[in-house]
Amino acid sequence: GQNIDQPTEMTATEGAIVQINCTYQTSGFNGLFWYQQHAGEAPTFLSYNVLDGLEEKGRFSSFLSRSKGYSYLLLKELQMKDSASYLCAFKDSNYQLIWGAGTKLIIKP
Amino acid sequence: GAVVSQHPSWVICKSGTSVKIECRSLDFQATTMFWYRQFPKQSLMLMATSNEGSKATYEQGVEKDKFLINHASLTLSTLTVTSAHPEDSSFYICSARDPTSGDTGELFFGEGSRLTVL
């Protein structure tokens, strides 16, 4: 079967670093996405990993380990505007996106 | 990046009426669009895949006769919620892939439509 799991909620302090983990199980894998979604808005693309390793994009980095079925999103120098839900999703063997439930990130001053 | 526009952003309707939501790809042609529903504090739930010129593919548990999808052109897909009831109140989001944007298969999302059925 397929499943994907990420923490429901996390809290971090402005200026700090936070890592949001995502684990998945699937027989077919064609890449993993991270999206950011502010309350009441549509998701926006953050990153895409298809190979193992770390992809860095400004304050945000995403890591993938295919053998472990594991990814994380790393946010540095947190800003209040980073308060949002972060959704991970993988593409299965049929190239369908399987979505996690999202991690609500709360940033405190 | 590619732009997907959705209309209306907000709609309030009476129980029993029908509501149409439009999803347009503004700067690319989308042979396939995806319709999602999202309840408060929950993740995206794929409702159906809209295919230009053919019937939509619905996910298990989604009523075809209640959620009518039409994809008449390469830039427009519509979702009609028929005989809406309060339990249909939700955030509906469409998305599409730009076939010219590379191999990532990144989804571009519309702004979403918040439906409230009274």
Write up this protein.
- The complex is a heterodimer of chains A (109) and B (118).
- With 109 residues, chain A is mostly beta strands.
- Chain A is built from no helices and eleven strands.
- Chain A has strands at 3-5, 9-13, 18-25, 32-37, 44-49, 53-57, 60-65, 70-75, 84-91, 97-99, 103-108.
- The mean pLDDT of chain A is 94.
- Chain B is 0% helix and 51% strand.
- Chain B has no helices and eleven strands.
- Chain B has strands at 4-7, 10-13, 19-25, 32-38, 45-51, 57-58, 67-73, 76-81, 90-97, 107-109, 113-117.
- Chain A binds chain B through residues 30-31, 33, 40-45, 48, 50, 87, 91, 95-97, 99-102, 104, and chain B through 1, 6, 41-46, 91, 93, 95, 104-112, 114.
- Could you report the average pLDDT of chain A, rounded to the nearest whole number? 94
N-C termini distance of chain B: 37 Å
Radius of gyration of chain B: 14 Å
Task: Give the biggest sheet of chain A.
Answer: 6 strands, mixed
What attributes characterize this protein structure?
heterodimer; A: 109 residues; mainly beta; 6-stranded mixed beta sheet; 5-stranded antiparallel beta sheet; 11 strands; 0% helix; globular; B: 118 residues; 7-stranded mixed beta sheet; 4-stranded antiparallel beta sheet
